[in-house]
Target: Lipoprotein
Amino acid sequence: MFHRNTALRLAVPTAVLALALTACGGGDSKSEGSDDKPKDGAASSQPKEEKLAAGASTTGKVEEDGAAVTYDVAAQKVDLGTAADAKKLVQDPEDAKGLVPAVAHIKFTHKGGAPLTDTPDVADTTEVWADGTRGGLLIGAAEDAQGCEDPLDLEGWKKGESHVLCETYLVPESAKNLEVHWAEKDDAKPAIWSLPAE
Model:
């Protein structure tokens, strides 16, 4: 899983968003010669994932500022934008050629543990996959998307409260199958929702 933190988000200008992964399937562990797909066996070497329908929920514990918090997690939908939208979201429009933004909406409910003393990290392991390949992360894009909440406003999140947090990825314009992946931590097996584009 690809993890990023709030400090990285704060460093990104809001007018022009950074494309953290410039190629679908790329990432911080990308190997030489892998082009824009994972090395053979990368996906198959992962443990079997939990498969969920749209709106179904799973439960996970996340380390939030040194304390474990239990969340109920439900991916609700993926809003798919246009090629024109994608070009507006990156510094170099060539980086978005053939791609469209996909905004994953995930509802997180604080089920147990202490109230948060800082901005939440629970959404940081959210990924959008298209046709079996991870998309390219756009840091900071989701905070302005309709129906999405800004994690920076959620300090003090306590048991019983639910919030919709979003992540934006660039995926191929021709993608047929979209999935939202979420895990408790980077090296945990993800829960996977297969969601239609809206």
In short: The two ends are 25 Å apart (CA to CA). The longest strand covers residues 67-80. Residues 11 and 157 are 23 Å apart (CA to CA).
